[in-house]
Amino acid sequence: METVDIRQADVEDAEALTAVYRSAYQENRRLGFPAKAESVTPETVEEWIEADRVYVAEIEDELVGGVRLTKTDPERVKLSRLAVHEDWKGSGIGSGLVDHAESTVRTRGETTIWLTTPGEHPYLPGFYRSRGYEKTGNYPLEYRDYDEIVLEKQV
């Protein structure tokens, strides 16, 4: 596999990261789990970069993935918007981004990462469970035909 570099995003990454989100989240729509990220705008991604901790994965200067961390309590951080461009799925980039997020949270002295994901998704809950995340609750979505679950991990 080619070398993947992960770094904190800056606003100049917003357009390329938007393309990654649109590509990555099309699969969820095909699987019956549409998400807002599939139609996100560069302006919204720029807002995420300015407000939260957003990290990007690059291969030879091509932006191929991203993840967002949002502090929700003094020791809790929400992991969201994990995305890998369709052309790079299955190559370990998502795992690398989650590893980086967990390491960052640990280094900053925060203790818990939590996230939501569609409970009936064919592989996302299993992906997170295999990494030590445990279901701690349900996350009903009034505006979707599916609900999500809450998963947490102590880091």
User: What name is given to the CATH topology?
Assistant: Aminopeptidase
Q: What's the Cα radius of gyration?
A: 15 Å
Spans where pLDDT lies below 50 across 5 or more residues? none
The level of helicity is 25-40%
Task: Report the CATH C-level class.
Answer: Alpha Beta
Task: Describe the largest sheet.
Answer: 7 strands, mixed
Whole-number count of domains? 1
Number of strands: 7
CATH superfamily: Gcn5-related N-acetyltransferase (GNAT)
Structural class: alpha+beta
Order of helices and strands: EHHEEEHEHEE
In the CATH classification, which architecture applies? 3-Layer(aba) Sandwich
Shape designation: globular
Q: Quickly count the helices.
A: 4
What does this structure look like?
- It is a single chain.
- With 155 residues, the protein is α+β, with helices and mostly antiparallel strands.
- It is built from four helices and seven strands.
- It has a seven-stranded mixed beta sheet with strand order 1-2-3-4-5-7-6, sandwiched between helices.
- Helix 3 links the parallel strand 4 (76-84) and strand 5 (112-118).
- The longest helix is centred in the first third of the chain and has 17 residues, at 14-30.
